[in-house]
Design brief:
The protein is an alpha/beta fold. The chain has a single domain, classed as TIM Barrel (Alpha-Beta Barrel). About 40% of the residues lie in helices and about 20% in strands. The protein has an 8-stranded parallel β-barrel, surrounded by 7 helices. α1 runs parallel beside α2 and α2 crosses α3. The model has no long low-confidence stretch (mean pLDDT about 95).
Length: about 200
Amino acid sequence: MVKDPRLAGLYVLTDERLGEHLATAVDAALSGGARLVQYRDKGTDGARREAEGRMLRELTRRHDAVLIVNDDPALAAYIGADGVHLGREDPDVAAARSVLGTRAIIGVSCYDSLDLGREAVSAGADYVAFGSVYLSPTKPDAVRAPLELFAAAKRALAVPVCAIGGITPANAGPVLAAGADMLAVVASVFSAPDIKRAAQAFGLS
């Protein structure tokens, strides 16, 4: 399997608390060098989610970046996103692929388990994510994924590897050195007073 060159760099996950500032915040993150955006919203307002998704699709196109939708293959297909990210409680890779087609990017959360990573890749995932690497302000109770897992995943898996959880510019170096292709972040970018500068601080553009 040839690794998708788009699946590398800073990967920002939206925060529902951004509210009406979602567009300006994501635009700032992309201007600061983010290469992937995940639209993560658990709300039930379908019209709002569709409108926000379409807005993010336009923003990511403008910045030549990738848009991934969290949990919802149908929404991803409807707004023309590049793909979907699946967790433990979401549809499986095959179900998502049947909705999105062969060219879509499908990522899978594998938490702290290399075996889950192997299963995801065998099922057709385009990337796998492990974490939480550090204590996460977004999900403080998340299981922890040791740095050694990323080195093992790089050896064992033929797809890009994403790290998530508590990653900041100050602690990103060891994660990249361990083998992570993508750094997925929420608070370290979107809770910063200057979002563009916070994204730039990772030095991944």
